[in-house]
Amino acid sequence: MSDFEVLAEGLQFPEGPIAMPDGSVILVEIKRGTLSRVYNGKIEVIANLGGGPNGAALGPDGACYVCNNGGFAWRELEGLLIPGNAAADYTTGRIERVDLKTGKFERIYDKINVNKLSGPNDIVFEKSGAFWFTDLGKNYPRSKDRGGLYWAKPDGSALKEVSYGHVGLNGVGLSPDEKTVYAAETETGKLWAFDIIGEGQTTPNPYGGPAGRCVAVQPLHVFFDSLAVQANGDVCVATILNGGITTITPQGASTHTAFPDLITTNICFGGKDMRDAYITLSSTGKLIKARWSAPGLKLNFCPYP
């Protein structure tokens, strides 16, 4: 798609956009280690989180909850910013709560039982006020921490490991009826669906191992990043290598909308008709706005015009 507006440039690997009713967009800058706000072409730092702030969502208390992956090592390739293995100062991933008025933040979760969170990536709140998040895992020169799907309460009182062992779960979103949670698997280019059967529970794999059912896999070699759900239930997945947004129906049919960045990482919806799509072109450091063909699904606890 060539018809879009550039809202900000010079961002340091933006992700996790949240469209606000005043026209601003809250997002993370992973390399910069910040939660930031874009408004009228200006970039304002809300909080200096450090590590690698990744996905973000507004919670029932009005605070912003951030998946912090703990930090990447970075390199530049032909002017593009590329994330890589764990940063040299990486210790753990975590979930953080940020007060948007003061910028103060606190750590809510950084481990499940005795196991650390490796690289929390994306987050979505359900109507109950609890949230689902993915853990991408973490890459090292000769090994990799696998990832999973988690459910938690924002007050720090409950954290459940719903499914573990995936090859890097990334984007996460809920179906309009909240009976299904979707997650995009980065390295396989697959979209997984998990059927919700209880509080933080999904249908288990009868053979053991990671849960979920595969909705779609792409014919080309691509990586999947974050996602957003349309009001009609279709899932819009940011796509790397074949840069753009891949829209997938619950039945598995896929269409692709190209954007000019090989590392297109996120999409969120806003505007009065929910057809304003805010998309992060991460390797070139841009936030853009485009008119989408279908309205997005309104997120719980996110204010809209």
From the coordinates shown, what is the CATH architecture? 6 Propeller
Uncertain stretches: none
Strand content: over 45%
User: What is the general shape?
Assistant: globular
The average pLDDT is 97
Q: How many H/I helical runs?
A: 0
Radius of gyration of CA atoms, rounded to a whole number: 17 Å
Alpha carbon gap, first and last residue: 26 Å
Please tally the β strands and state the result. Answer: 31
Q: What is the CATH class designation? A: Mainly Beta
Name the structural class.
Answer: mainly beta
- Helix share, percent: under 10%
CATH H level, superfamily name:
TolB, C-terminal domain
**Largest sheet at a glance?**
5 strands, antiparallel
Count of folded domains: 1
Q: What is the name of the CATH topology? A: Neuraminidase
Could you explain the architecture of this structure?
This protein has 305 residues and is mainly beta. The protein has one domain: 6 Propeller (Neuraminidase). The protein is 0% helix and 54% strand. The strands form 9 sheets. Strands 20, 21, 22, 23 and 24 form a 5-stranded antiparallel β-sheet that branches. A 4-stranded antiparallel β-sheet has the order 1-31-30-29, with no helix packed on it. The chain is globular, with a radius of gyration of 17 Å. The two termini are 26 Å apart. 50% of the residues are buried. The mean pLDDT is 97.
